Here is the input.
Amino acid sequence: MADDTVLRGHVTLEYPFTRSTGPVVGAFLTGLREGVIVGIRRADGSVLVPPCEYDPETAEPLTEIVEVADTGVVTSWCWNGAPRERQPFTSPYAWALITLDGAATPMLHAVRVDSPAAMQTGMRVRAKWRAEREGHISDIECFVPEDAS
Amino acid sequence: MTAPLDPVAPPITLPPSLRDVEPVQRVRTPFRLDYEVSAGRSMAAYLRAMKEKRILGERCPVTGQVFVPPRGVTPTSGLVTTELVELPDRGYVESFCVTRVPIPGRDDLQLPYVSAWIVLDGASVGFLGLVADIPPEEVRLGLRVQAVWRPDDELGETADNIKYWAPTGEPDVEITSYEYVGQPGEAP
Here is the structure.
Protein backbone atom coordinates (compact mmCIF):
# COMPACT_ATOMS: atom_id res chain seq x y z
CA MET A 1 0.00 0.00 0.00
CA ALA A 2 2.81 2.38 0.89
CA ASP A 3 4.04 4.25 -2.14
CA ASP A 4 7.78 4.77 -1.79
CA THR A 5 8.27 6.89 -4.91
CA VAL A 6 9.23 10.45 -4.14
CA LEU A 7 6.39 12.89 -4.53
CA ARG A 8 7.62 16.07 -6.21
CA GLY A 9 5.89 19.17 -7.33
CA HIS A 10 6.53 22.61 -8.74
CA VAL A 11 5.89 25.48 -6.37
CA THR A 12 5.61 29.13 -7.29
CA LEU A 13 5.69 31.63 -4.47
CA GLU A 14 4.72 35.04 -5.78
CA TYR A 15 4.00 38.40 -4.23
CA PRO A 16 3.02 40.88 -6.95
CA PHE A 17 3.62 43.89 -4.73
CA THR A 18 3.26 47.50 -5.64
CA ARG A 19 4.70 49.82 -3.03
CA SER A 20 4.57 53.52 -2.43
CA THR A 21 7.89 55.23 -3.02
CA GLY A 22 7.99 58.28 -0.79
CA PRO A 23 9.24 61.57 -2.25
CA VAL A 24 12.94 60.72 -2.58
CA VAL A 25 12.81 57.34 -4.29
CA GLY A 26 9.79 58.73 -6.17
CA ALA A 27 11.98 61.56 -7.52
CA PHE A 28 14.56 59.02 -8.73
CA LEU A 29 11.86 57.05 -10.54
CA THR A 30 10.25 60.22 -11.91
CA GLY A 31 13.66 61.11 -13.29
CA LEU A 32 13.99 57.73 -14.98
CA ARG A 33 10.62 58.22 -16.61
CA GLU A 34 11.75 61.66 -17.80
CA GLY A 35 15.06 60.26 -19.05
CA VAL A 36 17.31 61.83 -16.42
CA ILE A 37 19.16 60.32 -13.48
CA VAL A 38 19.01 62.13 -10.15
CA GLY A 39 20.77 61.74 -6.84
CA ILE A 40 20.65 63.58 -3.53
CA ARG A 41 23.20 66.01 -2.12
CA ARG A 42 24.88 65.49 1.23
CA ALA A 43 26.07 68.27 3.54
CA ASP A 44 29.62 67.96 2.15
CA GLY A 45 28.29 68.54 -1.37
CA SER A 46 28.76 64.97 -2.59
CA VAL A 47 25.86 63.29 -4.38
CA LEU A 48 24.41 59.87 -3.61
CA VAL A 49 22.95 57.93 -6.56
CA PRO A 50 20.41 56.45 -6.27
CA PRO A 51 19.19 58.99 -3.71
CA CYS A 52 18.37 57.88 -0.18
CA GLU A 53 16.19 59.65 2.36
CA TYR A 54 18.79 59.93 5.12
CA ASP A 55 22.52 60.44 5.22
CA PRO A 56 24.15 57.03 5.67
CA GLU A 57 26.69 58.42 8.15
CA THR A 58 24.88 61.11 10.12
CA ALA A 59 21.24 60.00 9.63
CA GLU A 60 20.35 63.60 8.74
CA PRO A 61 17.39 63.93 6.40
CA LEU A 62 18.57 64.73 2.88
CA THR A 63 16.46 67.01 0.71
CA GLU A 64 18.28 68.39 -2.32
CA ILE A 65 17.62 66.28 -5.39
CA VAL A 66 20.13 67.00 -8.17
CA GLU A 67 20.68 65.74 -11.68
CA VAL A 68 23.75 63.74 -12.58
CA ALA A 69 24.94 62.56 -15.99
CA ASP A 70 23.79 59.34 -17.63
CA THR A 71 27.44 58.54 -18.34
CA GLY A 72 29.99 57.25 -15.88
CA VAL A 73 32.71 54.79 -14.93
CA VAL A 74 32.51 51.09 -14.13
CA THR A 75 34.01 50.67 -10.67
CA SER A 76 33.37 46.95 -10.31
CA TRP A 77 31.69 44.25 -12.38
CA CYS A 78 31.00 40.56 -12.76
CA TRP A 79 29.98 38.54 -15.78
CA ASN A 80 26.62 36.83 -15.79
CA GLY A 81 27.30 33.98 -18.17
CA ALA A 82 24.05 32.11 -17.49
CA PRO A 83 21.17 34.55 -17.10
CA ARG A 84 18.11 33.28 -15.28
CA GLU A 85 14.46 33.96 -15.89
CA ARG A 86 13.35 37.54 -15.29
CA GLN A 87 16.89 38.89 -15.40
CA PRO A 88 17.31 41.82 -17.80
CA PHE A 89 18.65 39.77 -20.73
CA THR A 90 18.49 36.20 -21.93
CA SER A 91 22.05 36.22 -23.29
CA PRO A 92 25.17 36.83 -21.15
CA TYR A 93 25.89 40.35 -19.91
CA ALA A 94 27.72 42.09 -17.06
CA TRP A 95 26.42 43.34 -13.74
CA ALA A 96 28.35 46.47 -12.89
CA LEU A 97 28.65 49.14 -10.26
CA ILE A 98 28.71 52.40 -12.19
CA THR A 99 29.69 55.75 -10.70
CA LEU A 100 27.91 58.32 -12.84
CA ASP A 101 29.57 61.63 -13.64
CA GLY A 102 28.59 63.96 -10.80
CA ALA A 103 27.91 61.11 -8.35
CA ALA A 104 29.99 60.02 -5.37
CA THR A 105 28.55 56.52 -5.13
CA PRO A 106 28.06 53.77 -7.71
CA MET A 107 24.74 52.26 -8.73
CA LEU A 108 24.07 48.73 -9.94
CA HIS A 109 22.98 48.07 -13.49
CA ALA A 110 23.57 45.77 -16.44
CA VAL A 111 26.25 46.47 -19.01
CA ARG A 112 25.69 45.02 -22.45
CA VAL A 113 28.82 43.92 -24.27
CA ASP A 114 29.63 40.81 -26.30
CA SER A 115 32.01 39.12 -23.88
CA PRO A 116 33.79 39.61 -20.56
CA ALA A 117 36.89 40.56 -22.58
CA ALA A 118 35.07 43.81 -23.41
CA MET A 119 34.62 44.66 -19.73
CA GLN A 120 37.18 46.53 -17.68
CA THR A 121 37.13 48.35 -14.38
CA GLY A 122 37.47 52.02 -15.19
CA MET A 123 35.76 51.77 -18.58
CA ARG A 124 33.34 54.56 -19.47
CA VAL A 125 29.70 53.69 -20.12
CA ARG A 126 26.47 55.48 -20.90
CA ALA A 127 22.83 54.64 -20.25
CA LYS A 128 20.76 53.19 -23.05
CA TRP A 129 17.25 54.46 -22.44
CA ARG A 130 14.06 52.73 -23.44
CA ALA A 131 11.75 54.64 -25.75
CA GLU A 132 8.74 53.93 -23.50
CA ARG A 133 9.38 54.66 -19.84
CA GLU A 134 7.18 54.23 -16.78
CA GLY A 135 9.23 55.25 -13.75
CA HIS A 136 11.14 52.03 -13.10
CA ILE A 137 14.82 51.04 -12.97
CA SER A 138 14.28 49.08 -16.19
CA ASP A 139 13.57 52.39 -17.99
CA ILE A 140 17.33 52.17 -18.49
CA GLU A 141 17.59 49.12 -20.69
CA CYS A 142 21.27 48.75 -19.86
CA PHE A 143 24.56 50.61 -19.99
CA VAL A 144 26.83 50.32 -23.02
CA PRO A 145 30.42 51.44 -23.66
CA GLU A 146 30.38 55.21 -24.07
CA ASP A 147 31.80 55.10 -27.60
CA ALA A 148 29.43 52.33 -28.77
CA SER A 149 27.11 53.27 -31.60
CA MET B 1 26.85 65.88 17.48
CA THR B 2 23.87 64.66 15.51
CA ALA B 3 20.75 66.82 15.63
CA PRO B 4 17.65 65.21 17.13
CA LEU B 5 15.67 63.37 14.48
CA ASP B 6 12.62 65.23 13.26
CA PRO B 7 9.73 62.77 12.91
CA VAL B 8 8.52 64.68 9.85
CA ALA B 9 11.06 64.75 7.02
CA PRO B 10 11.56 68.21 5.54
CA PRO B 11 10.31 68.77 1.99
CA ILE B 12 12.69 67.97 -0.83
CA THR B 13 13.77 70.30 -3.60
CA LEU B 14 13.78 69.14 -7.22
CA PRO B 15 15.96 70.04 -10.19
CA PRO B 16 14.17 72.04 -12.94
CA SER B 17 13.67 68.92 -15.10
CA LEU B 18 11.37 67.35 -12.49
CA ARG B 19 9.45 70.38 -11.21
CA ASP B 20 6.49 70.39 -13.56
CA VAL B 21 5.93 66.71 -14.19
CA GLU B 22 3.62 64.22 -12.53
CA PRO B 23 5.63 62.59 -9.71
CA VAL B 24 5.99 58.82 -9.59
CA GLN B 25 4.53 57.64 -6.29
CA ARG B 26 4.25 53.91 -6.74
CA VAL B 27 6.56 51.23 -8.07
CA ARG B 28 5.95 47.58 -8.86
CA THR B 29 8.23 45.30 -6.88
CA PRO B 30 7.16 41.76 -7.72
CA PHE B 31 8.72 38.92 -5.82
CA ARG B 32 8.64 35.43 -7.26
CA LEU B 33 10.32 32.13 -6.47
CA ASP B 34 9.96 29.03 -8.65
CA TYR B 35 11.22 25.81 -7.20
CA GLU B 36 10.81 22.05 -7.13
CA VAL B 37 9.72 20.52 -3.86
CA SER B 38 10.04 16.95 -2.64
CA ALA B 39 7.14 16.39 -0.30
CA GLY B 40 8.91 14.10 2.16
CA ARG B 41 7.45 11.16 4.02
CA SER B 42 4.64 12.79 5.97
CA MET B 43 3.50 15.32 3.41
CA ALA B 44 3.61 12.70 0.64
CA ALA B 45 1.32 10.44 2.68
CA TYR B 46 -0.98 13.40 3.36
CA LEU B 47 -1.18 14.41 -0.29
CA ARG B 48 -1.67 10.83 -1.53
CA ALA B 49 -4.51 10.40 0.96
CA MET B 50 -5.99 13.69 -0.25
CA LYS B 51 -6.31 12.12 -3.69
CA GLU B 52 -8.64 9.59 -2.06
CA LYS B 53 -10.56 12.29 -0.20
CA ARG B 54 -8.99 11.28 3.11
CA ILE B 55 -7.29 13.62 5.56
CA LEU B 56 -4.26 12.40 7.50
CA GLY B 57 -2.72 13.86 10.62
CA GLU B 58 0.05 12.69 12.93
CA ARG B 59 -0.05 11.98 16.63
CA CYS B 60 2.60 13.25 19.00
CA PRO B 61 4.00 10.24 20.89
CA VAL B 62 4.32 12.31 24.08
CA THR B 63 1.28 14.53 24.35
CA GLY B 64 -1.14 12.61 22.13
CA GLN B 65 -1.97 15.79 20.24
CA VAL B 66 -2.90 15.33 16.59
CA PHE B 67 -1.37 17.70 14.05
CA VAL B 68 -2.67 18.27 10.55
CA PRO B 69 -1.20 18.66 7.99
CA PRO B 70 1.49 16.24 9.21
CA ARG B 71 5.05 17.55 9.16
CA GLY B 72 6.98 14.49 10.29
CA VAL B 73 7.87 16.15 13.57
CA THR B 74 5.73 17.34 16.44
CA PRO B 75 6.02 21.06 17.03
CA THR B 76 5.51 20.74 20.80
CA SER B 77 7.93 17.88 21.53
CA GLY B 78 10.33 18.09 18.60
CA LEU B 79 10.07 14.33 18.11
CA VAL B 80 9.79 12.39 14.90
CA THR B 81 6.23 11.21 14.47
CA THR B 82 5.41 7.63 13.60
CA GLU B 83 1.65 7.33 13.92
CA LEU B 84 -0.59 8.55 11.13
CA VAL B 85 -4.17 9.32 12.15
CA GLU B 86 -7.07 9.49 9.74
CA LEU B 87 -9.32 12.43 10.48
CA PRO B 88 -12.90 13.06 9.43
CA ASP B 89 -13.61 15.82 6.93
CA ARG B 90 -15.71 17.62 9.52
CA GLY B 91 -14.83 20.16 12.14
CA TYR B 92 -15.46 23.69 13.32
CA VAL B 93 -14.25 27.20 12.63
CA GLU B 94 -11.61 28.23 15.16
CA SER B 95 -10.98 31.63 13.62
CA PHE B 96 -11.65 33.30 10.31
CA CYS B 97 -11.05 36.33 8.15
CA VAL B 98 -13.31 37.97 5.58
CA THR B 99 -11.29 39.24 2.62
CA ARG B 100 -12.69 42.00 0.43
CA VAL B 101 -9.49 42.92 -1.42
CA PRO B 102 -8.55 40.98 -4.55
CA ILE B 103 -5.25 39.12 -4.83
CA PRO B 104 -3.62 39.56 -8.26
CA GLY B 105 -3.51 36.21 -10.01
CA ARG B 106 -6.24 34.64 -7.88
CA ASP B 107 -9.29 35.32 -10.02
CA ASP B 108 -10.72 32.04 -8.72
CA LEU B 109 -11.43 33.70 -5.36
CA GLN B 110 -14.69 35.60 -5.65
CA LEU B 111 -14.94 38.52 -3.27
CA PRO B 112 -15.71 38.62 -0.48
CA TYR B 113 -14.36 35.24 0.61
CA VAL B 114 -13.83 33.74 4.04
CA SER B 115 -10.62 31.95 4.96
CA ALA B 116 -10.64 30.09 8.25
CA TRP B 117 -8.76 27.83 10.59
CA ILE B 118 -10.80 24.64 10.65
CA VAL B 119 -10.31 22.29 13.60
CA LEU B 120 -11.18 18.79 12.42
CA ASP B 121 -12.84 16.46 14.90
CA GLY B 122 -9.96 14.71 16.66
CA ALA B 123 -7.32 17.27 15.63
CA SER B 124 -5.42 19.46 18.08
CA VAL B 125 -4.75 22.33 15.69
CA GLY B 126 -6.63 24.11 12.98
CA PHE B 127 -5.72 24.08 9.32
CA LEU B 128 -6.47 26.57 6.60
CA GLY B 129 -9.52 26.44 4.35
CA LEU B 130 -12.20 28.55 2.69
CA VAL B 131 -15.70 28.70 4.16
CA ALA B 132 -18.55 29.09 1.67
CA ASP B 133 -22.25 28.32 1.14
CA ILE B 134 -22.93 30.85 3.91
CA PRO B 135 -22.99 34.68 3.84
CA PRO B 136 -19.66 35.98 5.21
CA GLU B 137 -21.45 37.97 7.91
CA GLU B 138 -22.92 34.74 9.30
CA VAL B 139 -19.59 32.94 9.68
CA ARG B 140 -18.69 32.69 13.36
CA LEU B 141 -16.32 30.97 15.77
CA GLY B 142 -17.52 27.46 16.55
CA LEU B 143 -19.45 27.05 13.29
CA ARG B 144 -19.59 23.37 12.32
CA VAL B 145 -18.40 22.72 8.78
CA GLN B 146 -17.80 19.86 6.39
CA ALA B 147 -15.44 19.59 3.42
CA VAL B 148 -16.82 20.03 -0.09
CA TRP B 149 -14.51 18.02 -2.34
CA ARG B 150 -13.82 18.47 -6.00
CA PRO B 151 -15.38 15.95 -8.39
CA ASP B 152 -13.56 12.59 -8.38
CA ASP B 153 -12.08 13.12 -11.83
CA GLU B 154 -10.44 16.37 -10.69
CA LEU B 155 -8.75 14.94 -7.60
CA GLY B 156 -4.96 15.11 -7.40
CA GLU B 157 -2.18 14.91 -4.84
CA THR B 158 -3.01 18.35 -3.56
CA ALA B 159 -4.83 20.08 -0.74
CA ASP B 160 -6.77 21.95 -3.46
CA ASN B 161 -9.01 18.88 -3.57
CA ILE B 162 -11.07 20.50 -0.83
CA LYS B 163 -12.91 23.27 -2.67
CA TYR B 164 -14.22 24.79 0.53
CA TRP B 165 -15.92 24.04 3.82
CA ALA B 166 -19.71 24.31 4.12
CA PRO B 167 -21.88 24.59 7.25
CA THR B 168 -23.31 21.28 8.44
CA GLY B 169 -26.28 22.79 10.31
CA GLU B 170 -25.17 21.18 13.59
CA PRO B 171 -25.18 23.29 16.77
CA ASP B 172 -22.09 25.50 17.16
CA VAL B 173 -19.14 24.28 19.18
CA GLU B 174 -18.48 26.31 22.30
CA ILE B 175 -14.87 27.43 22.17
CA THR B 176 -13.47 27.48 25.69
CA SER B 177 -9.75 27.67 25.06
CA TYR B 178 -7.56 28.87 22.24
CA GLU B 179 -4.54 26.94 23.43
CA TYR B 180 -5.90 23.44 23.58
CA VAL B 181 -8.48 23.30 20.84
CA GLY B 182 -9.69 19.80 20.12
CA GLN B 183 -8.79 18.70 23.64
CA PRO B 184 -11.48 20.19 25.85
CA GLY B 185 -10.78 19.77 29.52
CA GLU B 186 -7.01 19.98 29.17
CA ALA B 187 -6.73 23.71 29.25
CA PRO B 188 -4.38 24.87 32.00
Remarks:
- Chain A touches chain B at residues 3, 6-21, 23-27, 29-31, 33-34, 36, 38, 40, 53, 58-61, 63-67, 85-86, 135-136 (CB under 8 Å).
- The CA atoms of residues 93 and 112 of chain A lie 5 Å apart.
